[in-house]
Predict the structure.
Amino acid sequence: MDRLIQEHRSWNMSRIRGADTKPEIRVRSMLHQMGYRFRLHRKDLPGKPDIVLPKYATVVFVHGCFWHRHPGCPFAYTPKSRVDFWSKKFARNVERHEEVERELQSLGWRVIVVWECETKAADVLHEVLTRVLE
């Protein structure tokens, strides 16, 4: 049972951003500090990747651990209400990303996923980006 009335829940959900999230901005800032130049949310690419590095034929998706089901992450919990609904929604999110990743790879793009929890500490984020971009 949801503790909020429908109008308030709808308002809460409308505040969840799809672009320019804090984790995404952290990744962009770190990439910029590392000297990389990039484009954002290119609509001509499958899945509208969060960050596109054309020079390196690389795209970066910054995934929220909750929405994209980061394996083993405490932020990837399942709500206790409407479990069937959430299970289907999460499964489709994961499936959709796999489809987009395959499509981008077939077009010659390298796909990198940075998880929200990896963006919390600057040193961890720097290590992740250094490891995957070099």
